[in-house]
Batch of 2 targets.
Target 1
Amino acid sequence: MARWIALGSAVLGAMLVLACAHAGFVPQPTVLDVERVQPADPGLSLEEMQAGRSIYLQRCSSCHAVHGPGEYRGDQWPDLIARMQREKKIKLPEHDRELMVRYLIAFSSTAPKSPDAGVGGSGAVPGSSEHAAAR
Ligand code: HEC
């Protein structure tokens, strides 16, 4: 019996890992993300990021599976939302739209990486090579 439970949780664990690697992954923000995005979006709080995430999940998952924020660049998200609003006639209060777009940009493929992101980070920070050369 206990062995089945152990096996079950191992399978569940593996499924969770796979789910996180999936393209539609919509990350839960943490305090580390707040620090990470400060330079790019000063004043964006954890509560605002969480609100942006839930607005996104509520408003944008009814017709299709949500796209992971990391599937697009930060500069693509505002246009994608504008297109959805225009073409699919989505009504979205401006305040909600703003929180959502700040959340999506914070987790986009071009979002600033935390300094210790290491191999997991997707690409170098622009300008980092010049810094290395100057040293
Ligand atoms: C009323 C239905 C509907 C809702 C609600 C909706 N979408 Fe879409 N979305 C679509 C359809 C249909 C497509 C695929 C066809 C297309 O690209 O126009 C699509 C495609 C997309 C794509 C892929 C675009 C591409 O170029 O490949 C993105 C990204 C997207 N939606 C984001 C959003 C976001 C963000 C929201 C919330 C603001 C949202 N969607 C809400 C219907 C919807």
Target 2
Amino acid sequence: MEKHSLNGTLIIFNAFNLILLGVLLRSGMQLFPILLIMLLSTSLVQFLTFRLLNRQYREIKDITEKVSMGDHSQRVPTLNVEEFNELGLSINKMLGRLDSTIGHLAIHREELRLIVGTIQDALWSINSEGKIEWANTAFAELFDLYDETRMQYYWEVIREVSLLSYIREFDSSSEHRIQEISLAGHTYLLSGSQNPDAQRMVLLMQNIDDIHRAEQMKKDFIVNLAHELRTPLTAIKGFSEAMEETADQQNMRYLKIIKNHTNRLINLINDLQTLIRLEQNYSINLQEIDLVTFFDNIKLILDPLFEDKDVELKVDIDPTHPRFCVDPFKFEQIFINLVENSLRYTEKGQILIKGKATESDLTITINDNGSGIAPEHLPRIFERFYVADPSRNRNSSGTGLGLAIVKHIVVLHKGTIEVDSTLGVGTTFKIVIPANNAS
Ligand SMILES: Nc1ncnc2c1ncn2[C@@H]1O[C@H](COP(=O)(O)OP(=O)(O)OP(=O)(O)O)[C@@H](O)[C@H]1O
Ligand SMILES: [Mg+2]
């Protein structure tokens, strides 16, 4: 097709008008007819230009309208005004890109549909009105009332009150949340994520029965093993103590080593049992205690440990609010573990327990001027079996369960525990328990 530019066409039309004017002026014609002829000629030029532009514009408009209706196969044909033709080419290029993006998205969507369909866990999406947008086969199998041909409200399909209240809680929170729930004798991990752009929430319910069973087996195994080991260890400890009475110096040294290692094993078994009992028994037995008396007792229990060391244990309790609700037996364990740690890593100096209760909470700090903990270990010391730099304390290091137990008890009281430590300067643990700590 022959193409010409808009500018070129207008120049030709205007040149034609000028030549016509020159010819008319030379012919000696009167001014009025000349003006009339020029007016007619200009109008004709304008009309032809407009018609040309309009035809090109319509061609493009028709195509874009069809595309907007969803017919992406349309393309703008070659146009004979160069500027419009370039516009048409750009539109065709854009449509080509759009086509390939849509093609990719369709492939991804199909892949996702296959994955979601084959997942064994129930997966579904809820819109802002509370209607189920889509759900996978596992969801349909779990909830009989689900009918994929209708847009149902989730409360029409899910009838379990606990699950409904969890979904409502998820709905009101903007963050990603995970919650363990029990449903018809099974345990599930329910996780919900918000998609604020689409105003939807995606929920996943994972059956974790197997994980629970395996965890229970592990715990039972530890409890049984601990039980079986306790009797022989007590016997070894008892007989080695008895042998100390008649042993010579060399054997005395060996017996001491046997006794130390036996004590370590007995402590490990005790710690493991305490941790498992804490995990199995979520409830705490809250009682109002008198803080001053409670810490006096703690001091009495711990004082014997300080006998052979050049370290002093000090307790400073603010008596303004003397009473607070805690589980006294579990609470005691916290201070025994923390003070034992401080004592283990302090050669000389003091360990200070400071406590202050208010209307709203109880804050206790345990501070020592011992070896301190290197910053890289700090984030992990509350993990089970984590021993910071065991080589440093090969003889004195424990099994790394003490702080895990402490943390567990603090969490059972709905409290928090923080640690602040500087190598060579000392360590401070800070515990805050809220007054409304009832579970
Ligand atoms: N006051 C402290 N000063 C220096 N290091 C500490 C202190 N408290 C804890 N740690 C470090 O944190 C680690 C974890 O402590 P945790 O009480 O859990 O275990 P443990 O004392 O080694 O063993 P367990 O308490 O089971 O006998 C310890 O091994 C030690 O390295
Ligand atoms: Mg410890």
